[in-house]
UniProtKB/TrEMBL annotation:
Chain coiled-coil ranges: none
Span of domain Fe-containing alcohol dehydrogenase-like C-terminal: 189-357
Oxidoreductase keyword on record: yes
Stated name of the protein: Iron-containing alcohol dehydrogenase
Keyword hit for Oxidoreductase: yes
Length: 385
């Protein structure tokens, strides 16, 4: 196990009816800007609960944050913060709204061109507004981490940033708020969380049995409960476990002291930026092909993954590893997330623009060994057709 430092200051307030706790969690004198996505937050009553919980505080609303939040939209929120003097932010939604709120929190305190926050991957963030979240879509883990991803439509660029200054102060997780999610979003969320774990786990053995067992437990939970969430959308216990699993998948715990990959995510970002695919759809397309491309380097962990997650105990390590990749693809399909570029009407002509964009964004040495080059990514995309 490698040396590490673990820090996570986010308070989790979990359970039905916990939105009422906002009155306790947010300073009484705060002027709050509530950020959210579409009209579902209002239609489901979540925004009404939030407004009631805010009580006598001054607050404003900023809606319309897109899936894969856009820089152009978020800068309008930054302008609103500045013009109206908000000193606290509250994200109400899924990972996109929370990611967007993190950017707004940092950009509102940044003197230069806010795009610098993303091109420096957070290196230029020196201050941020405090904020909390009310999670309505379990998937990204953004409610308990320091990461964010923002898309700039005019540049067809989707870039991540990280900063310890954008950890949420708190996150309210009420599983009941997930009952009305469309099947597509539930499936996407399960796939997103699954791949988050895989990116931190399917690398090479690092003598870290605690992290391995944590990761394997999360993967097993997703495999077991994901289909149940589609079949019985108002099963509180299923939704509660999925919500907590998605949070634990990317709150930093399972990734400490071990090598991490993230090449699937970086390549997937380009698919979203250029073709508008859902984030989870891009992961489902890229991951199986990436695992096959890096099969020899990952074989030891793939075989372990086969045995401990998929309960495959017959055959050689290579045979187990190959079957585990096939079962992973089948699982994504069971979650109604397609796994081929052709499923999204993309053919070979899409590949070179994706590789060019990846190169322009400096993503030329990806993976746990830094050897996932543009040429490797080209082969991965060809295999994913």
């Amino acid at each position: 196990m490698n040396n590490f430092e673990f820090y996570n200051p986010t308070r989790i307030v979990f359970g039905e009816g916990k939105i009422a706790e906002l009155d306790r969690l947010i300073p009484a004198d705060a002027k709050v800007l509530v950020l959210f996505g579409g009209q579902s937050a209002r239609k489901t009553g979540t925004l009404d609960e939030v407004e009631q919980a805010l009580g006598q505080r001054q607050f404003g609303l900023f809606g319309g944050i897109e899936p894969n939040p856009r820089f152009e939209t978020l800068m309008k929120a930054v302008e609103k913060v500045s013009a109206e003097g908000y000193d606290y932010l509250l994200a109400v939604g899924g990972g996109s709204v929370i990611d967007g709120t993190k950017f707004v929190a940092a950009a509102a305190k940044y003197d230069g061109d806010a795009w610098d926050i993303l091109t420096s991957m957070g290196g230029k963030v020196e201050a941020a507004l405090p904020f909390g979240t009310v999670l309505t879509l379990p998937a990204t883990g953004s409610e308990m981490n320091k990461g964010s991803v923002v898309t700039r439509e005019s540049m067809q660029a989707k870039l991540p940033f990280m900063s310890e200054l954008v950890f949420p102060q708190f996150s309210v997780l009420d599983p009941v708020k997930t009952y009305t999610l469309p099947i597509r979003q539930v499936g996407n969320g399960v796939v997103d969380a699954f791949v988050h774990v895989v990116e931190q786990y399917l690398t090479y053995p690092a003598n870290a049995p605690v992290q391995d067992r944590f990761a394997e437990g999360l993967l097993q939970t997703l495999v077991e409960l994901g289909p149940q969430a589609l079949e019985t959308p108002e099963d509180y216990n299923v939704r509660a476990s999925l919500m907590w699993t998605a949070t634990l998948a990317l709150n930093g715990l399972i990734g400490v002291g071990v090598p991490q990959d993230w090449s699937t995510h970086m390549l997937g970002h380009e698919l979203t930026a250029l073709h508008g695919l859902d984030h989870a759809q891009t992961l489902a397309v890229v991951l199986p092909a990436m695992l096959n491309e890096k099969f020899e380097q990952k074989q030891a962990k793939l075989a372990q993954f086969a045995e401990r997650v998929w309960h495959i105990d017959q055959g050689s390590d290579a045979e187990k590893a190959q079957l585990a990749i096939e079962k992973t693809r089948d699982f994504f399909e069971r979650m109604n997330v397609k796994t081929r570029m052709s499923d999204y009407d993309l053919d070979e002509t899409a590949i070179e623009p994706l590789i060019e964009s990846l190169t322009q964004h400096g993503m030329t040495q990806l993976g746990e060994h830094g050897d996932v080059t543009p040429d490797v990514c080209r082969r991965v995309l060809q295999a994913a057709l």
